[in-house]
Amino acid sequence: MQEPASSSYYEFRDRFMDAGNERLLDIDFANETANQGGLDDSQDTDHRSRLQGVPIEFIKSLCLERAFPPNHEDAGFNLALQALDYLQDLEYTRCDALQEAANNLGITKYNWREVLAGNPSALAWVNNARQWNGGLEICYAELYVGLRIWIMVHELRATPFIRENVLAVLNTLFPPNLQQLPSRIPPKVSHLYRATFYQYVVLVETSGILVFDRYVDKLEMPGNKYTWTKVRACVTDYIKLAGEMIKIAREIYGVEYFEARHSTLNDSHNTSSECPGGQNST
Q1: pTM for the full model?
Q2: How many alpha carbons fall within 13 Å on the CB side of residue 240?
Q3: What is the tens place of the pLDDT at every residue in 118-151?
Q4: HSE, side-chain direction, 13 A CA sphere, residue 162
Q5: What is the chain's Cα-based Rg?
Q6: Where does the source fall among the domains of life (predicted)?
């Protein structure tokens, strides 16, 4: 994970970060699942009631056509927070579908090899799904950070510059009191980005936008992993592959599923084509 420019986890002027400060925000938006492991990790149940199962085509349209289109200048940042929420819902739905498949197969992360030892097709699919899941976790972590960076870029460049508005968005995207994050994002990364953007809030307010433009110029350099083009490509891949995983996982009603499709799933080529996430798309 590429880390931001700040050399400190905390910006000393950021009073929201003070221990015991009553103004610390308890932001539900940051309450991402810490155990996004599907077949690899036990699932928390506290967020399951939040699942809405929004149609994948709606999420694709909102994110890729309206909120985050190919051209950064055309982005609908007024829809950005809503788009982030739907992407979060998609990740919850994906993890829930994987866990349901695991339950239907009667497996856990500890016993899947033993339980499925007599069914090569099921064993191969679970092994591929574990790799696929890992790739999607990485992809989700990258878009989680990348989209937040670009939303903050938009807020800091907005005219007129209103400090309170920018800080409200910062508190939403990189909250001072982290609860849970996607499993592939260390808490220090969120704190570092918060510190970096808080510094720019102060600098833009006191010195103008030119000092921040240099940051954006570096962000748009081809070698940066968080260019708009790369972040949007990650969102595109994630939506596509997460949707495919959900569809397949929901079809698995037990080991009988693999027995019924033995002639197809026993072929390694067909198995890998059903699990494109096994080929690292990120």
Answers
A1: 0.78
A2: 13
A3: 999 999 999 999 999 999 999 999 999 999 999 9
A4: 6
A5: 21
A6: Eukaryota
